[in-house]
Amino acid sequence: MSESKRKVLLIDDERGAARIIEAAFSKFERDSYDLHWAQTYEEGLTQLCTGEYSVCLLDYQLGKRNGLELMREPSLHSVNTPVIFLTYVNTGDLDVLAMDAGALDYLVKSEINPRALERSLRYTLRLQETLMKLSDAATRDILTGLYNQKEGLRIMENEVTRARQFDRPLTILLINVDNMKMINDTLGNVTGDKMLFNLAHAIQDEVRSVDFVIRWGGDEFAVLLVESDAVEGRDRSESIRELVKQLGCTVSIGVSEWNASRGGVSELVDAADKALCEAKWSGRDRVA
Fold first, then answer.
1. Model-level pTM?
2. What are the catalytic residues?
3. Which member of 28, 46, 104, 105 has the lowest number of beta carbons within 10 Å of its beta carbon?
């Protein structure tokens, strides 16, 4: 969708307030947005979790619950939609609490007018763009553009929490390039780096958009398969293993499915690492 028609989600349980916001949108001088309205906490959370919106206007009071609770929902961990917090009264520390929860701006409803709201939307979008660039610099691997290991561990912690809370499967793949040192020694580091870059993007193309691909180490990658069990993980691993051969190299892959008895992230990774070692010891170019 073009920038002139970015989608904005309004979560507010009052029809009158929604109409005032809608009227303000119609009077913007520079920008044009596609406004969507969610009237309840539950509906707003569901729509926000889609990740389809450029900005969310979030009311503080939503029936018996509130916007601060919504922003702390575990299901929003991987959603990067910036939030502008709305409230009727500018009292106490609500503005600080909203910012601490992750809101990028704060508006008092009685002070909202088309110019102020348009300014807030423009400011929030630009701030979000800047924050995303800074985040990428801190969380992405320079060579491949994948998540680095530090960010990968943070993602894994979040996804293990989600798997435990909702009783859903979660599987990790540890992928190691076979004989990478020999490739570098024979063909040179530049060729080796190019191979790692191509390998990273081949892996990304083979998994779903909801999954996470991580540069785990020099010649090692991790893939976190969301809501997938070990059987699905092995099938995906075999597809990756066959695809990689087209790049002129082979990989060994260890697969591990999370379960409550296994514990946390470190236990999940350790199990996948042991499986990877088994694949290596068994002759490489295989899945364990």
1. 0.61
2. 219
3. 46
